[in-house]
Amino acid sequence: MTSVSSPPRTIRIGSRKSQLALVQTYWVQEQLQKSFPDITFEVHTMSTQGDKILDVALAKIGDKGLFTKELELGMINKEIDFAVHSLKDLPTNLPEGLTLAAITERENPADAVVLHEKHKGQQIETLPAGAVIGTSSLRRLAQLRHKFPHFTFKDVRGNLITRMAKLDAGEYDALILAVAGLERLDMSDRIHQILPPEISLHAVGQGALGIECRAEDTEVISLLKAIEHPQTRDRCLAERSFLRVLEGGCQVPIGVNTEINGNELTLKGLVASVDGQKLVKDTVTGAAADAEKLGAELASILRQQGATEILEQIFTEIQRGS
Ligand SMILES: NCc1[nH]cc(CCC(=O)O)c1CC(=O)O
């Protein structure tokens, strides 16, 4: 007699190879292994385009899917079953056949200031005019230029460890990095200041992990639901809907902040010009269950306030290669 139950499945998890990506993926693997001890979860690493092109400013190459494409192909070709991403690196429109199956509990989503040791005890507000601030994000650049026009801003690429080494070598006076990445890599002792929403609204999805899999793989989807964090999901769905309707990738100056109180979700959003001169900002509140509707609503409010013109100007500049 043959057994009717199929043998326990081995699930293959895809991950980038950076230290941060691996910490995140091993965390997901561990959570799933605890919930499903009879299933085997294996980690498979892949290099993405974003890991290979390190000498060109992100804003110039455009980064839609830069850190996710190879993993997505791996899922479509069934080399891997799901992929763990920093949610902020995952484009708002996914390839046909793939789905965002789960969003895990968010770390602090804010941006952090990491100062060179010669500025110990200072804050971004007290750095001298001309101080060199390292960031590769147009969102951080625009907001900080708006508040601190007297600083010099310089692109910084490479993974977190490489960036820290460049700061320590004296190439920058300060770096602006995600709190979440520093915490996950055990470098929170390097954080001098956490930027409040009045100075920097964070990226869509920052601090959360997004897990993507094949849309028809109901078995994997139901496993992944076990590690979903509903409040983070609602907040991030509102943020992603806001970004999707504005049709910006991660490399346009769009920032957000969300809060949940009971069943109510508040979403703050901002669109700025790269030079920090123009900036529109507003807030919407509504039922958390209507997260995506709220995001779309805020996007149209900001469009009425001039976001469309700001975004069009950025796209023209990027096409011209300036
Ligand atoms: N684009 C790079 C990236 N993608 C995710 C993180 C940090 C972790 C997170 O936001 O979840 C970072 C580094 C940074 O912005 O400092």
User: Strand-residue fraction?
Assistant: 15-25%
Uncertain residue segments:
none
Cofactors, ions, other ligands:
the ligand NCc1[nH]cc(CCC(=O)O)c1CC(=O)O
Radius of gyration: 20 Å
Q: Give the CATH architecture of the largest domain.
A: 3-Layer(aba) Sandwich
Sheet with the most strands: spatial strand order: 2-1-3-10-4
Largest sheet: 5 strands, mixed
Highest-level CATH class of the largest domain? Alpha Beta
* Shape by Cα distribution: globular
Structural class: alpha/beta
CATH topology of the largest domain, anyone? D-Maltodextrin-Binding Protein, domain 2
Number of helical segments? 10
- Give the topology string: H per helix, E per strand: EHEHHHEEEEHEHEHEEHHEEEH
Helical coverage, percent range: 25-40%
Beta strand count: 13
N→C terminal distance: 71 Å
Query: Domains counted in the coordinates: how many?
Result: 3
Q: If you average the pLDDT, what whole number results?
A: 92
The CATH superfamily of the largest domain is identified as Periplasmic binding protein-like II
Tell me what you see in this structure.
- With 322 residues, the chain is an alpha/beta fold.
- The protein contains ten helices and 13 strands.
- The strands form three sheets. It has a five-stranded mixed sheet with strand order 2-1-3-10-4, with helices on both faces.
- Helix 9 crosses helix 10 (291-320).
- The termini are far apart.
- The site of the ligand NCc1[nH]cc(CCC(=O)O)c1CC(=O)O has 9 residues, from strand 8 and helix 7.
